[in-house]
Amino acid sequence: HVQLVESGGGSVQAGGSLRLSCAATGHRYNCVAWFRQASGKERERVAAISTGGGVTYYADSVKFRFTISQDNAKNTVDLQLNSLNSDDSAMYYCAAGTSGVRDHCGQSAAWYAYWGRGTQVTVS
Predict the structure, then answer these.
(1) What band does 27 get if pLDDT is binned at 50, 70 and 90?
(2) Residues whose CB falls within 8 Å of the CB of residue 12, separated by 6 or more in sequence, listed in order
(3) Which residues, listed in sequence order, are joined to residue 97 by a DSSP beta bridge?
(4) Distances in Å between the alpha carbon of 117 and those of 14, 54, 92, 93, 102?
(5) Over the range 29-46, which residues count as b (16 or more CB within 10 Å of their CB) and which as e?
(6) 90 has a pLDDT exceeding 80
(7) What is the mean pLDDT of residues 22-50?
(8) How far is CA 34 from the centre of its chain?
(9) Cα–Cα distance list, 83 to 21, 30, 56, 65 (Å)
(10) Beta bridge partners of 50
């Protein structure tokens, strides 16, 4: 059984930074992603990491601003958010899934079997 718990959200001014953390229990996954969903918009994947090979994926809108990383000792996957702007305001969710292809992480929300409850990020 996999459980994901997000932390680190909050309110920040434009140009500021936040660090989100996803604490994971269970080991039935090999890919962890961060999604976000703003009011009235679809859930989108912003970053993902394959837990075996450490391959990372980023949405174009966050590339070079956000960094996803894993801490195997703590069993966490963090998302560093820099140079935030109002378009980054959303509920951020951690998700985990299992790929049969090495270092592949699905793009769509439907690909991920496990989800956390989310943490809110507000940029003003």
Answers:
(1) confident
(2) 18, 84, 121, 122, 123, 124
(3) 31
(4) 25, 24, 9, 7, 27
(5) bbbbbbbbeeeeeebbbb
(6) yes
(7) 94
(8) 2
(9) 18, 29, 20, 6
(10) 31
Amino acid at 50: S
- Single-letter code of the amino acid located at 4: L
Tokens for 23, please give them.
Answer: 């604490």
CB burial of 60-73 (b: ≥16 within 10 Å; e: otherwise) equals eebeebbbbebeee
What average pLDDT does the structure give for the chain? 95
- Amino acid at the residue 87: D
Distance CA 46, CA 33 (A): 8
Furthest C-alpha separation in the chain: 41
